[in-house]
Amino acid sequence: MGIPVEQVEAWVKEGIVEWWGHCEDMLQVLSSANLVVLPSYREGLPKVLLEAAASARAIVATDVPGCREIVRHDTNGLLVPPRDATALARAVRTLLESPEQRERFGHAGRQIAVTEFAEKIVVEQTLDLYRELLGARWPRKEAERVLP
């Protein structure tokens, strides 16, 4: 279920929605945003929230698996209950009205992105999991192999 394009276009004509359509340059998009909002019902770790955190943007997201892995309520963003439009609107308004809180959340999000989600960290965690699951079947480097 989504919002029909005709409805979005009507909101654009009314001046209550700014719609950019498809964008390739996420760095430019995020650098021009005051905050990032993702009202998701459930998904894996949303890449847009990782990008928002890495770009030092405050976040509003729903309190569901995936979103709550990157958004820490009252640390780098606000989490709201799923399917609660009133809570979502309230959280967005709170952050739009508080540039200081957006800046604080943005800095905290950047730290989370760098210390927990940097590529090197994620790759090492993934390899550690494979090593744990595969045990002796994990292919070791030649120098690590024990010959009989």
Description:
By secondary structure, the protein is mostly helical. Helix content is 50%, strand content 9%. Helix 3 (47-54) packs across helix 6. 18% of the residues are buried. The mean pLDDT is 91.
Amino-to-carboxy terminus distance? 61 Å
Q: How many strands, which pairing sense, and closed or not: the largest β-sheet? A: 3 strands, parallel
At the fourth CATH level, what is the homologous superfamily? Glycogen Phosphorylase B
Instruction: Tell me, rounded to a whole number, the average pLDDT.
Output: 91
Instruction: Bin the helical content.
Output: 40-55%
CATH 2nd-level architecture: 3-Layer(aba) Sandwich
**Radius of gyration, CA atoms, in whole angstroms:** 20 Å
Total of domains: 1
How many beta strands in the DSSP annotation?
Answer: 3
| Estimated structural class | mainly alpha
How do the SSEs run, as a string of H and E?
HHEHEHEHHH
Proportion of beta-strand residues = 5-15%
Strand line-up of the largest beta sheet: 1-2-3
Based on CA inertia axes, which overall geometry fits? elongated
> Given the structure, what is the number of helices?
7
CATH secondary-structure class: Alpha Beta
Kindly identify the CATH topology: Rossmann fold
Uncertain spans, ≥5 residues at pLDDT below 50?
none
